[in-house]
Amino acid sequence: MKNPWRQRWKEGRIGFHLHETHPALVRYWPALGVGPGAKVLVPLCGKSLDMRWLAEQGHPVLGIELAPEAIEQFFAQRSAGVARYPQAGFDVSRQGNVELWCGDFFHLHIQQAAEVGAFYDRASLIALPPATRERYAFHLAQLVPPGAQGLLISLTHDDQEAGPPFSVSGQEIERLMTPNFRLELLENGEADDRGRCESVWALKRRGPLV
Ligand SMILES: C[S@@+](CC[C@H](N)C(=O)[O-])C[C@H]1O[C@@H](n2cnc3c(N)ncnc32)[C@H](O)[C@@H]1O
Predict the structure, then answer these.
(1) What pTM, to 2 d.p., does this model score?
(2) Which residues participate in S-adenosyl-L-methionine binding (predicted)?
(3) d(C-alpha 143, C-alpha 32), whole Å
């Protein structure tokens, strides 16, 4: 069956897309202390402007996105040329230090993420149904090296059954991520007029025990 996200992009139902950099990224990223040249993995990246901000901070960006429409629209915002080539089953597009890989995040292999030193996840968990969230947390942990830091932005709302966006509680984030990451809750926002409440987390990939 076709992934419902492909349909959403075709129909332009992308209410999750922000027209500015997410304020929590600007507020919290600098304090993480990620090395200036560290490559940032952005799973389920959409056409997020957050990737531009990360690139402007000097980070090479590796975004993974299922929908070709998202990738085309991201690069169309700038007139600079885009190099395109196939790699490891993905269609890769590169503009400056932003590389977007079109394909399924779960097919990204650790070898393709070898240079990744940090990660940024806004609205990935809430895009996925419960069983797939387990898989996501495990796969992310496989891709990032011990010590890698990242921000995770998620949300809750009142309807536990409805989604996407799915409501993902703080307890669930802790349960999913704690086996492989150290977690710190940075912010639990106020509910908006639709009852949606964002939470912001700092994560650090646990290393092997010594
Ligand atoms: C809620 S949106 C968030 C997009 C982006 N992170 C942002 O903040 O705007 C989730 C995105 O994940 C993409 N997606 C869903 N499943 C995916 C998968 N298995 N692999 C890659 N991308 C996927 C969707 O097409 C959609 O663009």
Answers:
(1) 0.96
(2) 9, 44, 65, 122
(3) 19
